[in-house]
Please model this.
Amino acid sequence: MDLVSIRKSYRRYARHYDATFGRVFATGRHSAQKTLAPLEGKRVLEVGVGTGISFPEYPDGVDLVGIDVSREMLQVAQERINGGLPGVRGVAEMDAEALGFRDDSFDAVVGMYVASVVPNPDRMFAEMWRVCRPGGQILLVNHFASRQWLLRGVERSLRPLSRAVGFRPDMELDHFVHLTGCEPEAVEPASLFGYWKQVAFRKPA
Ligand SMILES: C[S@@+](CC[C@H](N)C(=O)[O-])C[C@H]1O[C@@H](n2cnc3c(N)ncnc32)[C@H](O)[C@@H]1O
Model:
């Protein structure tokens, strides 16, 4: 997967995303908010924010910025903001793997259903970590490679299709753990049967 094909795909999805994928991913977005609360007064960055479908779930007092590489997805997000979302400061076209923010800029950094889509998830996660302040939270909602050997084998066998479907089916959570040297604070199911997981990290203070 590369940025050109990602942009091309999401250009096509943008106007239908909320009615299709948006619904499928609703459970993960709800549970993310519970884990992140309380967010009032906090600076939050959401990477791969897409159409901003998560915006109404954030509390009013949050200071939220969203970034994404797809201009068309962001157009829908901007229309949402124009409809009145006081907590959302704005959205920007930006690569999650090269964030244009200073170190330690946010109290929480969130990435939902994006880690399996970006070209280099390690780089994205390193950037999320960098811009999160010490003591802040980094939250991923994603599918991670199964620990059950049979499912793991199936997921591996699907790897060659990932470019065609735009989704990496066997991403290892351990990569992120090694990258930061920090175990997650919590790993919880974010969908029925736990295919999607919510993983919360805390950057050491
Ligand atoms: C499956 S959608 C998830 C959207 C939203 N987070 C949600 O919960 O519905 C993946 C999003 O990641 C964005 N994306 C993919 N690669 C990216 C990158 N390198 N930097 C920023 N956004 C990216 C896509 O444009 C798309 O909007």
About this structure: The chain has one domain: 3-202. Residues 3-202 form a domain with the Rossmann fold fold (CATH 3.40.50.150). The chain is about 35% helix and 20% strand. The pocket of S-adenosylmethionine is lined by residues 6, 10, 21-22, 25, 29, 47-50, 53-54, 68-70, 73, 95-97, 112-114, 117-118 (CB under 6 Å).
